[in-house]
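User: My collaborator sent over this chain with a note saying "see what the structure looks like." That's all I know about it. Can you take a look?
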Amino acid sequence: MKRYVLLILLSLMVFSGCNYGFRGKNPPPGISTLNIPLFENTSGFAESDIREKFTESLKNKIVSDNTFLLTDKEQADGLLTCNIATVTDEPLVISGNEQVSKRKITITISVDFQNLKTTKQIWQRNFVNYGEYNSSSGSFSERLVGVNEAIEKITEDIINDLTSNW
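Assistant: Without extra context I'll predict from the sequence alone. Here is the result:
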């Protein structure tokens, strides 16, 4: 009897929609290799290596995900062109003496996903996400914490859209 109850409970957990964080790895048909050139930056944001950070973060996630292989443009099935469109940095928490103690940096990335074999656009989307950082020290290194958090979130969003909903 205990075994039967245990089987029912396990079945309920599996089929009731418990979320284990699985996602389908369904790339678009015909796309197994990607080329990702260095991100563009038309935002005017002056962080010197933000383009490289975004590009490397996305490439690392793609390699870890193992849905696509990265290759040069001549060999690739798909091309992912990304642009850092906007970066805003605004107060998030203001303390009692009207000092900003926490800030929020919001980044918008425009992504164009092309099928290089058919020369057709698969999709074009904007990805927006943010990072928070303490601003009490006034240090630029604190701002990098927020920038890096936003990069992680956005590149995760991009990889999710690349490998889902197909």
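A starting point for your reply to your collaborator: Confidence is low (pLDDT under 50) at residues 4-23.
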